[in-house]
């Protein structure tokens, strides 16, 4: 691996929109291909954006809300409004949904362990 691949400005990292997510632009800060055993994402969800109800077969998902507000649904009972500084821990196979509230873009750091890749989103 070259040193140029190890130090990058975030704007130089390719963007993508994950399955079952509307209004979402992600960048893989730690790509599963490097073999670190985790996947780390910078996510930006536009006002009104949603991560439709889904789950991940084998992966824990950890979300750190950096800006914006959202309504998070976990399983069948937990619905909570969250904002900056909130950490959300989602175990494998737990259905979850995120809806962005208000007019501010939400910025998140998302960690998957193990990495989920593009096929790891299961409608719930």
**Strand tally:** 10
End-to-end gap: 38 Å
Q: What profile does the largest beta sheet have?
A: 10 strands, antiparallel
How is the CATH topology named? Jelly Rolls
> According to CATH, what is the class?
Mainly Beta
Say which CATH homologous superfamily is assigned: Jelly Rolls
Supply the number of helical segments. 1
CATH architecture, please? Sandwich
- What's the Cα radius of gyration? 14 Å
What is the average per-residue confidence, as pLDDT, rounded to a whole number? Answer: 93
Model regions low in confidence, pLDDT < 50 over at least 5 residues: none
User: Which structural class best describes the helix and strand composition?
Assistant: mainly beta
Shape descriptor reads globular
Strand content: over 45%
Helix content: under 10%
Order of helices and strands: HEEEEEEEEEE
Count of discrete structural domains: 1
Task: List descriptors.
Jelly Rolls; mainly beta; 1 helix; 124 residues; 10-stranded antiparallel β-sheet
What is this structure's SSE topology?
Elements: H1 3-6, E1 15-16, E2 21-30, E3 39-55, E4 60-67, E5 69-74, E6 78-82, E7 87-90, E8 96-101, E9 106-113, E10 122-123
Antiparallel strand pairs: 1-2, 2-3, 3-8, 3-9, 3-10, 4-7, 4-9, 5-6, 5-8
